[in-house]
Amino acid sequence: RKEVEQDPGPFNVPEGATVAFNCTYSNSASQSFFWYRQDCRKEPKLLMSVYSSGNEDGRFTAQLNRASQYISLLIRDSKLSDSATYLCVVTSTGNQFYFGTGTSLTVIP
Amino acid sequence: ETGVTQTPRHLVMGMTNKKSLKCEQHLGHNAMYWYKQSAKKPLELMFVYNFKEQTENNSVPSRFSPECPNSSHLFLHLHTLQPEDSALYLCASSSPDRSPYNEQFFGPGTRLTVL
């Protein structure tokens, strides 16, 4: 079983739509959780850390459910510039990072 | 310079060449990583260094040889590569001791083409 699993998509949504991505992880001892964004042919960039209490940054909301071992990312009022691949990342020990395969999002005008 | 830098940004090499990729981080982190990303594929972890010591080697062929002289610098030495090694090579750094604030920061990558 993979450490981290994501729906690869693609998700094609109209501008202004709300879209949600989920990610499940297999190790209940996982410690840190992140969402990264990767544009085509570029490096991944940190979008948000995910904390147990959930956190929000503008149009983006991240949630962690430890009991069910999943994390989610909600994007409200989608913009064309949100088109990218969104990577779910989970760490077990301090420097073991497990990346999901990514979920592709295209926001359509 | 800030963040994580990588040189060169693009590299074309023949199968018999020897070249090196360089990564430098200016974030005060103590762990550094090499990843490979082939076209439209997920990231593949290659090597992990923690405080200059290699802590992970994900069954990477010996034609890839990492070197970490200090916590800020990481090299990947390339020798007799194959065309299937063509990919984006990404370097990252983090501070494992700052968990849960131990996110990785990536360099811009080296796009490698092996002819």
Written account of the structure:
The complex is a heterodimer of chains A (109) and B (115). Chain A is mainly β and 109 residues long. Chain A has strands at 4-6, 11-14, 19-25, 32-38, 45-49, 55-57, 60-65, 70-75, 84-91, 97-99, 103-108. In chain A, the strands form two sheets. In chain A, strands 2, 4, 5, 9, 10 and 11 form a six-stranded mixed beta sheet that branches. Chain A has a five-stranded antiparallel beta sheet with strand order 1-3-8-7-6, with no helix packed on it. Chain A is globular and about 40 Å long. Chain B is an all-beta fold and 115 residues long. Chain B has strands at 4-7, 10-13, 18-25, 31-37, 44-50, 53-57, 64-70, 73-79, 87-94, 105-106, 110-114. In chain B, the strands form two sheets. In chain B, strands 2, 4, 5, 6, 9, 10 and 11 form a seven-stranded mixed beta sheet that branches. A four-stranded antiparallel beta sheet of chain B has the order 1-3-8-7, with no helix packed on it. In chain B, a hairpin with a 2-residue loop joins strand 7 (64-70) and strand 8. Chain B starts with a strand and ends with a strand. The mean pLDDT of chain B is 91. The A-B interface holds A 31-34, 41-46, 49, 51, 87, 89, 91, 93-97, 99-102 and B 31, 33, 42-43, 45, 48, 50, 55-56, 88, 90, 94, 96-97, 99-109, 111.
